[in-house]
Amino acid sequence: MSPTMSQKKFPQIIAWSALLSLLSVVLMGCSPLEQLKNAAGKDENKNIEIESVELVTPEPVEQKPQVPEKPEEVKPIQVVSQVDGLTAFDLLQQNAQINYKKYDFGFFVEDINGIKSSDQYFWSLYVNGKQAEKGADQIILKKGDKMEWRYEKIK
User: Which helix (H) or strand (E) holds 116?
Assistant: First the structure.
């Protein structure tokens, strides 16, 4: 009786399967992570020496300041001065991400922590509960002064 076509190909299929299996074991065994796992095994006291590690950090995604959908839900930025002599502007810069413009009259804060002023809302400065009558760069704080930036509707 002569062998059928499928009986002739059976040894070839077995050979290719074995080759692919061997190749996958070799490739998996070569990965640095697998080598570390194998080297460490179950003995936690083994020292593993690593020659170099390359850390890949993603580029920061810069978000543009935006006007919030619900401005009335924006929480005020509150900071208590821990020292004498800082301006309200300096204290804000130390405690928040801001964008501002400098004018002849002083600094105008355009956005705080990604929340942008608009034609209807702006950031208003209060010190110890009272609305500021000067620019943030002209207000010298004392230790214990409470600075608060509120996102308010323009009247």
Answer: strand 115-116
